[in-house]
Amino acid sequence: MNVVVVESPAKAKTINKYLGPGYKVLASFGHVRDLPAKDGSVRPDEDFAMSWEVDSASAKRLADIGAALKGSDGLILATDPDREGEAISWHVLDLLKKKKLIGDKPVKRVVFNAITKKAVLEAMANPRDIDVPLVDAYLARRALDYLVGFNLSPVLWRKLPGARSAGRVQSVALRLVCDRESEIERFVSEEYWNISALLRTPRGESFEARLVSENGKRLGPRAVSNGEQASALKAMLEGASYVVDSVEAKPVKRNPSPPFTTSTLQQAASSKLGFSASRTMQVAQRLYEGIDLGGETVGLITYMRTDGVQMAGEAIDAARKAIGEQFGARYVPDKPRIYSTKAKNAQEAHEAIRPTDFNRTPDQVRRFLDADQLRLYDLIWKRGIASQMAGAEIERTTVEITADASGGKAGLRAVGSVIRFDGFIAAYTDQREEGEPAGDEGEDDGRLPEINAREALAREKVNASQHFTEPPPRYSEASLIKKMEELGIGRPSTYAATLATLRDREYVTIDKRKLIPEAKGRLVTAFLESFFQRYVEYDFTASLEEKLDQISAGELNWKDVLRDFWKDFFAQIEDTKELRVTNVLDALNEELAPLVFPKREDGSDPRICQVCGTGKLSLKLGKYGAFVGCSNYPDCNFTRQLSSDGDAEAQASNEPQSLGKDPHTDEEITLRSGRFGPYVQRGEGKDAKRSSLPKGWTPASVDHEKAVALLSLPRDIGKHPESGKMISSGLGRYGPFVLHDGKYANLETIEDVFSIGLNRAVSVLADKQSKAGAGRGAAVAALKELGEHPDGGAITVRDGRYGPYVNWGKVNATLPKGKDPASVTLEEALPLLAERAAKSGVKTPKKAAAKTSKAKTTKAKAAEADGEVKPAKATKAKTAGKSAASKTSGAKTTAKPAAAKKTAAKAKKD
User: Which of 144, 189, 213, 699 is found 20 to 30 A from 304 (Cα to Cα)?
Assistant: First the structure.
């Protein structure tokens, strides 16, 4: 018997069926060890020695592998076919060797590019040794990410409170988003006019032609820049006669795009399906690992982390055969289409993402897939089969027209296109990314009627339409991935995790699928550009990625790359020890002036405080991050939060606005914006009464009456008929409420606070008391049944007080932030429950601990590769020994980071 180690339990079960009784397939659940989240895990002074740590769940999993190995004939390492998969195999082998469990047993490495019986058996017949250069590239990447995260993040904590982390790839991706926002803020819109004529042929058919020249002078796209010029040209065209100069029909051929790579799949899934990058990878992982098709579990697509565009020869033959059967012989090109990869490192360029069987159409597997799986498989199948289809044949017609008027001559042009043969378009049509300009193929110009040279045309109408240039669009996840790929930043497996990190750190938000940098994110970017500029430069990051590729190709020594990097990076870190917070604030005030001090409508100095009139506004750093404050503090207590959207009008509105005087105290009531949002204030100084705006109220909707009502809270409703004690209503931290004898009950809306009567208040309080009497032990209905736990007992998804969670017996594990409860799978639930059980000390069957290993599943590989390491906070170092594996699965660590000891004294001074 041979022991086979894969990564996921779902894949282990499927492969075991394919291989039969002569093999025992076990899952590692992703990485089995990691760098501990504490100082000294990577030691540059010891030639970059690295300390690895195995958590308890992984130790149990390795014990199972070791136990199975004792009576086996050999070990086959079959983890995923990429750099992270190679690293997992190396970790497993290294640990087994240290436990002296290998002996003289043969060890081989195989990779499954697809989970089908044929692919698995072929891979088993062609084993190899572990790819040492690929492992070296992994070690270099992990060391770099650790050194950046565990040295740069503490600098941020000391010098820029509120910042959470910095990372080698994460920070550069954030800079792209922030730079685009700065472009938008600096953009100055320009007016331009488009002029066209609606013309009619002698056969009575109408079409539109655009003005392109005046008196022999070509007019560019925005040459007509004002209404006066547009009116003059319109008047000339209205008095002109029109003759066709020439009609040119030109055939154009469009060829299909290659099959998907990781990044192009993420882009297409975002544009066509609205999937986030992480959602795309989750669904693709399931399609790769296998779907039960009526009793047989089969992988439907090839491995989904790849930068290769080539397909295997047998796959090309199968695609061509399927095209002939499903579309017709004309759709099969004379020769197979061969695509070459642009990947700089051939060792990491696998086959493109394609269906494992082109005869398995989306309609045939529809009943076995959930909605998201079907949509993504449909996209992959169509793109894959279209990549081998004949090109589309398009006829593009250009008509040149002369308008002859008494005041001069003008040239107009009409362009149209007709698809003569749809070719690959019959299966798949590319969709432009948001904000991408239209191409010049002409197929979007519409169809023209029959037009002949030298014939006269009748004028029906002349149109002059005003337009304004628009700023560059904000990045979507898809367009950011495309830009990162163009710049050579990150690699296929890193994009989804990098974007997730930016969201989790609250550096960016997503609104209508657009990435908007938060004020916190812009502060971090400005700080890094001011004091660590080299390490957020696009070229520097891309060149470092190239060096990592060269390591995996065996062209560079990994420790030489680390030495070159560490020498300059450490010097830069040391320089920041003398950096004062005042230096940081001065730099940020300068760098972020458009965000922090937007121009005022009256033209006054935007840095002069409008409350006291003499103080100077500046960024201030507080416990919860940065805000704007007055230099005359504490005499002037003006503060305002930073606008996260860069809207100058919104910023200007943060200045105190008078709403009138309080009718009882005669004090001025003002509308303001502080660190925690908009609020109303009565009076000035420390004794001023303040009230935050309730949810649903905008600053624009607040008038004098509403402000007086808010500032008069709490409101007495009446005495409780039983206790005789007063019931009051108010607005608190958790929203509107009623209060009686120290007990609170929530109200639905803020309007209820002002309108609720005694009878209803008593009823609301009684309802709250009756619900509380049900106790916390009341059963919570299951939202979804996931199936049986390997050790017995149902696993369900439920919705609790603090959000959705998965449940198994007495173990409850909260779902990751943003995870859709309806999309949770059994494979995702098992590691979450295992980790929760280990943390909380809940006793689980011994067998369960083995079967539900640590939460670092195959998804953790992407998180490790994202170039971002978030070290634990430097204070309250109670769990210094916990591994970074817990961090990957979402558990918080509080271990003391590198450089914290060295900088503690200096941090106190600052």
Answer: 144
